[in-house]
Amino acid sequence: MGKFIVKRLLLCVVIFFFAMFLIYTLIYNLPSSYVETTARELAAATSKMGGKNYQEWLAQLNEQYGMNKGVVAGYFTWLGNALKGDFGTSWKWNMACTAKFAGCIWNSFTLGLVAFVFEILIAIPLGVVAAKKQYSITDYTVTCVSLIGISLPTFFVATVLKLIFAINLGWLDIGGMHSKFFIAANATQWENILDLGKHFILPAMTLIFVSIGGLMRYTRTNMLEVLNADYIRTARAKGLSEGKVIGYHAFRNTLIPVVTLLGGTLPGLFSGALITETLFSIEGIGYVSYNSMISGDIPFTMFYLALMSVLTLLGNLISDILYAVVDPRVRVN
Fold it and tell me: Alpha-carbon distance 145 to 315, whole Å?
């Protein structure tokens, strides 16, 4: 098992190296130079104070991010700085990329964790119940809800929830992190938490609705496959109660692929929900990265894409390890 993990880690390093090289190459060859745009803005902002002119800013930025060395040399310049934890200063937010990340990641993590927990609590039991009562009204209802959740885009679900709960009922705000007339400085810590939690309700509901469909169908399909296995028929023939057959024998084996799937989604708690956070103006890593991208913020864009690459590779590694852990029949050579 140790050798397997080491091999996978080395493979992840190689994949990360080439993935980031492709990303850097694409950004380097963009038809519009964001470096020139940033240099022009900096020159305009500092010209009245006797600061650097456009050419000086352009030379400094190109040197700082290796844009004047060619693709290969520039990439190694960026990679060397990144390995030291230096991703540069964000042009959009005017602070270190890592500092901006540290300031917004917990909003994304909290939102993602709440959605993740409710997704498990709702989707897995409903998937099991649908499989137990195959071709019943319950099964058809669960299947219909899951198909709707899979089919509807995030922006449509978010719009409908805003229309119902924010506009028609007026129970919640349409977006943002705090209420319109809420003054954080004059409120207690508990009041701040309650107000923030109130604004996380609609985004969390959106994430839950668009996520439970796939997990429900996945759980139902695996449960049906397990229920038709020979050892389940043997357990029933021995006179075991239906509750023990389902809860002990069937459900445990259903969880093997489900746990593997969930393990791969755990790193996603730190990557943010770009669409949902943007739609509800939740200042998480997804919202920040989207605004950075549309503003041409190359340093933060590279940092975010590097983070996404690492989390994706980590998710795949966790899935492989969990599959070997939860299924004793799997042997890793």
Answer: 27
